[in-house]
Amino acid sequence: MTNLNTSLEKRALLEAVNLALHRAMQEDENVVVLGEDVGVNGGVFRATLGLRDRFGFKRVIDTPLAETMIGGLAVGMAAQGLKPVMEIQFLGFIYAAMEHLVSHASRIRCRTRGRLSCPMVLRSPMGAGIRAPEHHSESTEALFAHIPGLRVVIPSSPARAYGLLLAAIDDPDPVIFLEPTRLYRMNPQPIIDDGRRLPLDSCFTLREGSDITLVSWGASVHETLQAAAKLEEQGVSAEVIDVASIKPLDLDTLEASVRKTGRCVIVHEAPRSCGVGAEIAASLYERALLDLQAPIQRVTAPDIPPPLYRLEQLYIPSPEDILAACDLVLNYA
């Protein structure tokens, strides 16, 4: 490899995404980036900054404001040997591309009996917390987790964003890669640009504990870790698991933790009904019911569209909400 920075520097999640894209495009000339404003402007959040200058307009493609077209282009490119990384500017704009994701990207391998695959990545910012209108603040990951043939990955730290995005671009099948917007510039951490991939389909245990398991992903990992620190002050040992890959789920890791602690609280920013938290809870009941010492609790956003920014903090699950759920579980008679 040449012209890649391998020094250890502190980087935020947004910078880690940019670093991974540079690395992937340098390693493989079949990787192309496309989306609205990804080239000249470097993306609405500047996640693709510098890519066009380095790799040229044929590999970093500014598209019209047409998510349906972006989705169709990406599927066609992937089926013919390229590795497109398409950007949807906000997750709430993805619905126009759903036809291509559900009816084509997810089914190509099955439909052609393995003759074709669809090695594409769809990147999109997700979630509330940046004082934006509703369609800029969606957390609809459960929509994609329900579709056979799609992987769904949501990093919660710069290091995981870097390693998981590289692994997603390598994957021979379509990956939905959702980036929590309010974590974009939060909590930089040292990252070395060494190209190391992290495993897809795996959870990450962020804190070891023995009294209760806290399960989360994406931006809500931030509040979950805050709650775990408060529990520690109260003498409660909380294990914190970042699900990271919500489709497929690493149920073995989750089961092992719940069997150890006997208690579980699941936290996510997406609406409650039919959320991924419900799937995790049901799976844990099936696998580890007799080891549970209390019913599993979920801490989620309500079943409403994301509100305007004055009410965002009431919508997003807070550390206090998580602690209240933990109190119910820990004191269950």
Question: How would you characterize this protein structure?
Answer:
Helix 8 (220-233) links the parallel strand 10 (212-216) and strand 11 (238-242). The chain is α/β, with parallel strands linked by helices. Helix 1 packs parallel to helix 7 (158-170) and helix 3 (67-79) packs parallel to helix 4 (98-105). Strands 3-2-4-5-7-6-12 form a 7-stranded mixed sheet, with helices on both faces. The protein has a 5-stranded mixed sheet with strand order 9-11-10-13-14, with helices on both faces. The chain has helices spanning 13-27, 51-55, 67-79, 98-105, 108-111, 141-145, 158-170, 220-233, 251-261, 276-288, 312-315, 319-330; strands spanning 8-11, 31-35, 60-62, 83-87, 121-126, 151-153, 175-180, 189-192, 204-207, 212-216, 238-242, 245-247, 264-271, 297-301. The chain starts with 7 loop residues before the first strand and ends with a helix. Helices cover 35% and strands 20% of the residues. The longest helix is centred in the N-terminal third of the chain and has 15 residues, at 13-27. The model has no long low-confidence stretch (mean pLDDT 95). The protein is globular, with a radius of gyration of 20 Å.
Which helices and strands, and how do they pair?
Blueprint: E1 8-11, H1 13-27, E2 31-35, H2 51-55, E3 60-62, H3 67-79, E4 83-87, H4 98-105, H5 108-111, E5 121-126, H6 141-145, E6 151-153, H7 158-170, E7 175-180, E8 189-192, E9 204-207, E10 212-216, H8 220-233, E11 238-242, E12 245-247, H9 251-261, E13 264-271, H10 276-288, E14 297-301, H11 312-315, H12 319-330
Parallel strand pairs: 2-3, 2-4, 4-5, 5-7, 6-7, 10-11, 10-13, 13-14
Antiparallel strand pairs: 1-8, 6-12, 9-11
Helix pairs in contact: 1-7, 3-4, 8-12, 9-10
